[in-house]
Design goal:
about 425 residues; ten-stranded mixed beta sheet; disordered N terminus
Length: about 425
Amino acid sequence: MTAMLHTGAEGFLHRFEGLRPRLPGARLPWLDALRDGAAAAFRVQGFPTRRVEAWKYTDLRPVADAGFDEPLTILDDGLALPPAHGAARAVLVDGRFRPDLSSLADAGFTVEGLAPALPAQEGRLGALARPEQEPLTALNTMLFEDGLVITVPAGVAGGVLDILSLATESERPAAFHPRHLIRLEKGASLTLIETATGPAEAHYLHNPVFEIEVGEGATLVHARLQQEGRRAFQLSTVYASVAAGGTYDNFTLNAGGRLVRNEIHTTLTGPKAACHMNGAQLLGQGQHADTTTFLEHAAPDCASRQTYKTVLAGKSRGVFQGRILVRQAAQRTDGYQMNQALLLSPDAEMDSKPQLEIYADDVKCSHGATVGELDAEQLFYLRSRGIPEARARAMLVEAFLTEAVEGITDPVARSVLEVAITDSWGKQTEKAA
C-alpha cells in the first residue's frame, strides 16, 4: 500500500517510515535520533485541532485530509525566475536547493545546501526548534530533505540575499518541508528577501522551518513575501535567538495561499537586544491567514515592536495571536504590540488575541487591537477631489498597509515590500472586479 492511500498524521508517519533509509543524513546517529524523536512527538500530537488553544482559530483539517505525496525531482532548466533583488540569490524548487539556478559567487559569506552539509550540523540543527511542542516542526524534522545553511562571519556586511522558493506543477498533491539554518556571527549584518511562490492551480503544502541565530551586535533584516498559489497551503515556523546588542527585523507579507500559518518564536537572550516583527495580510475570497507570534524577553534592557495589519475582502478570515513573555530577569523591558484589521466585506472575519505575561517589575509594555471599515470621511474627501471611488478605496487600503512597512530600516527590503503590497492589492482588486 502506498502513502497516497493514507491521510492525516498517519499518512505522513507512513511516508516517514518508507522514506527513512533514503532521507539525507540517514546514517548519522545524532540525526536519526532527532528524526525518531520528532516522529514520536508527531505520533502523539498529530495535527493540532481547534481544541488546542494556540490553534483555536485555524482548522488544519483541509491539510490533514489532502493525502500529500513527496514532490518529484524537477530538473527543468527552463524555469521562469522573477528578477532578483540583490547580487546573490539562492533558489529552491519544491524545497530542494538548486545551485544551478542560484547566483552566489559574489555573496561574500557562506550559502550551501543543507543535505550535503548535514554531517557538520550536529549541535546546530535542532538547537532552537521545539518539535516536542510544535507538531508542524516535528513534521518538518521527520521529513526535511534539504534547505539552506547560511553563515555570515563576524564583522561581515553581507548585503542582500534573495531566497526564492518555487513550487512546481504536480499530478498529485505534493508536500515539501525545507529546513533553513541561518547564523550571523558577532557584528555581522544581512538582509534576506525571501519569496515563496507557485502556480495558481497547483495543490501543495510548503512547511518550512527556520532556525536563526543573530550574534552579539549583529543585524538581520528578514523580509518574507508569501505569494503561494491560491490552492496552496503554507505552514511556516521561524525560531530566532538574538544575542546582546543584536537586532532581528522580520516583516511578513501574506498575500497568497488558501490556508496560511506564519508562526514566529523569538527570544531576546542578551542585554540590549532588539526585535521588530511587522507584517501585512491581504486576504480575498476563500483565504485564511494566521499570524502567531511568541516573543520572549529573557534579558534586561531589551526592546521589541510588533505591528501587524490585515485587509480582508470577500469571505476570508484573518487571525493574529501575539504573546509577549517578560522573564523576571528582563528588567527595563520596552515592548509594544499593535494589530489592526480593515474589513471590506460583511462576510470577512478577523480574530485577534494579544497576550502579555510579565514577571519583571520594571517594564514598559503595551498592546492594542482594532477592527473596522474604511473611514467614510477620508473616502468622501478623496471623492470630493475628483478621485473615482474604486481608486479612492485602493489608495486608503494601500496607505493602511504600507504604514506597517515604515519600520523596515533596510531601503532595499522596504522598497520590495512596498511594491509587493501594491501589486498584491492590485491583483485582489482585479479579482473583485
